[in-house]
Amino acid sequence: MKRLDDKNLRFILFYLLVIVGFTLSYAAIFVELMKIIEGRRVSFTTAIYWVIQTMTTVGYGDIELTTDFLRAFSIIVQLTGILMLFGMFIPFVIVPMVEERLKNLIEDFPRVAPEELKDHIIICGYNPMVASLITELQSEKHPFIVVDPIRESIEYLVSHKIPCIWGDPTKREVLIDARIVHARKLLANMDDETNASIVLLASSFPNIEIIAIVEDVKNSKYLAYAGADRVISPKQIYGTQMGMRATGPLVNEVLESVEFFKNLRIVELPIFPGSMLIGKSLREAEVRFRTGVHVVGIWNRGELTLGPSADEIIQENSVLLCVGTMEQLSRLRALTTGGFKK
After folding, report:
1. Interval 40-59: pLDDT, tens
2. How does the UniProt record describe the way this protein sits in the membrane (predicted)?
3. Ramachandran region of residue 60, left (φ > 0), alpha (ψ -120 to 50) or beta?
4. Cα dist. 90→135, 186, 318 in Å?
5. Where is the domain boundary, 80, 107, 134?
6. Which of 55, 106, 123, 284 is most buried (CB neighbours < 10 A)?
7. How far is CA 64 from CA 45, 74, 313, in A?
8. CATH number of the domain encompassing residue 67
């Protein structure tokens, strides 16, 4: 890396010398041309001033040229400046410096999970739902690691000190680097096609439970065929919960829940008529404070919002996508059905 820095430094010094050389040469020529062709005397300082503003294409217009010969000379000076900036400085100085910076950032990305990591969850793909799940895993002190191929996601995870590795989870070596041999569960949380590849690959490793999040319910069976132990479809759960809503509240029962790790589950809970949460924002409802449950998404009018803001309003037809323990989810169930008083 040091050799590359020295090379850049040498080129910058060379570039500056060339710029100074052109500037002084053009200034001297300008002084003589103004005296011989236009019969005007200008100082060398004024000539340098004219050359610099012409090469940088600023052109304030305070020095007027009256002959075609000098105008043609000014075009040559302008083209020289454009060539020096766009033909040399940007591609040979700016671009290598940016590429080197990006390379350093990428080289700093974690690529291998710590050796002490075991009995953990491998989360393939980062999004708002996973962000909320991570919060729960951290509060429950469950070991996990996020695998993501997107540089921006890894930058965010690294900056927030969230365990992660950078790589494509459809590649065997990346899952091995995530210590899949020692993992307890794997969550495939990317698009359906990528999830199928992840599931198929992960199923070749023994003693690991594979959970897949599916976007299109029609693809559920393919993920199951690929080797997923559980396939979660937010849309399908939403339909089930709305059906439950039509049959009436079952306060003491939390159905369609999926256990992620030990007693940590994800479930969708519909809001029943008479619930004290109706009309309140998530901030006003204080769901986290009252129940310990983390709301990772909310269905409103058939549309799922992952990672909803605190200002999201809970409506009578809303369905909350939540993560928590069975005890916490039961407390929230009481709130959603109106069976819990403040």
Report:
1. 899 999 999 999 888 887 87
2. Multi-pass membrane protein
3. alpha
4. 43, 45, 53
5. 107
6. 123
7. 16, 11, 66
8. 1.10.287.70
